[in-house]
Design a protein that fits this description.
Radius of gyration of chain B: 14 Å
Strand content of chain B: over 45%
Order of helices and strands of chain A: EEEEEEEEEEE
Oligomer: heterodimer
Order of helices and strands of chain B: EEEEEEEEEEE
Helix content of chain B: under 10%
Number of strands of chain A: 11
Largest sheet of chain B: 6 strands, mixed
Number of helices of chain B: 0
Number of strands of chain B: 11
Shape of chain A: globular
Radius of gyration of chain A: 13 Å
Largest interface: A-B, 23 and 24 residues
Shape of chain B: globular
Chain lengths: 113, 115
């Protein structure tokens, strides 16, 4: 519907696992974002890529590692996560980083056991 | 750091009643955006306000940007059950010139509408 797809939609992983979240946008945008949405907390911006360059890293722990191979694809590599990392992880894209409206994907619901 | 506060956190209304959510920033904003997230869904962009004192309308929704560009509001007239969801404001600071600015979301207002 929004032109931004995310896989998987649900993920359960142990604290010692390594997994990756994938995001793809079909809108021709140049900026892509990872957000974390936890219960009772505002949307937390994690990473921003603008024209494939990382422009924001909001003090995110190193157990989260982003990768942006091209302007249409964004990955979030996960390893040795903690239970408090359980949340909805949303990907978004916009024309460019800054004052443009963002289009969100459906999110990946992550549970860390 | 910059904070964007949104009130109320929850609002329960009867269908047909009006609803307002308020957004306040600790710093002057360049722009402000509003998003709606339906239950189980993802945020969807509603509107962006740029000018001091700006007012924009979308059918039953009225958006305002304060004169000092530090606050904003969203007002829904005669709510309907389709208005259910969480409404987020997102303030942008530092945009202009060569700076892209920084976007910070408020914590959202959860609206329930009783038929």
């Amino acid at each position: 519907e929004t032109g931004v797809t995310q896989t998987p939609r649900h993920l359960v992983m142990g604290m010692t696992n390594k997994k990756s979240l994938k995001c793809e946008q079909h809108l021709g945008h140049n900026a892509m974002y990872w957000y974390k949405q936890s219960a009772k907390k505002p949307l937390e911006l994690m990473f921003v890529y603008n024209f494939k360059e990382q422009t924001e890293n909001n003090s995110v722990p190193s157990r989260f590692s982003p990768e942006c191979p091209n302007s249409s694809h964004l990955f979030l590599h996960l390893h040795t996560l903690q239970p408090e990392d359980s949340a909805l992880y949303l990907c978004a894209s916009s024309q460019e980083w800054g004052t443009y409206e963002q289009y969100f994907g459906p999110g990946t619901r992550l549970t860390v056991t | 750091g910059q904070q964007v506060m949104q009130i109320p956190q929850y609002q329960h209304v009867q269908e047909g009643e009006d609803f307002t959510t308020y957004c306040n920033s600790s710093t002057t904003l360049s722009n402000i955006q509003w998003y709606k997230q339906r239950p189980g869904g993802h945020p969807v962009f509603l509107i962006q306000l740029v000018k001091s004192g700006e007012v924009k309308k979308q059918k039953r929704l009225t958006f305002q940007f304060g004169e000092a560009k530090k606050n904003s509001s969203l007002h829904i007239t005669a709510t309907q059950t389709t208005d259910v969801g969480t409404y987020f404001c997102a303030g942008i600071t530092g945009a202009g010139g060569t700076s892209y600015g920084k976007l910070t979301f408020g914590q959202g207002t959860i609206l329930t509408v009783h038929p």
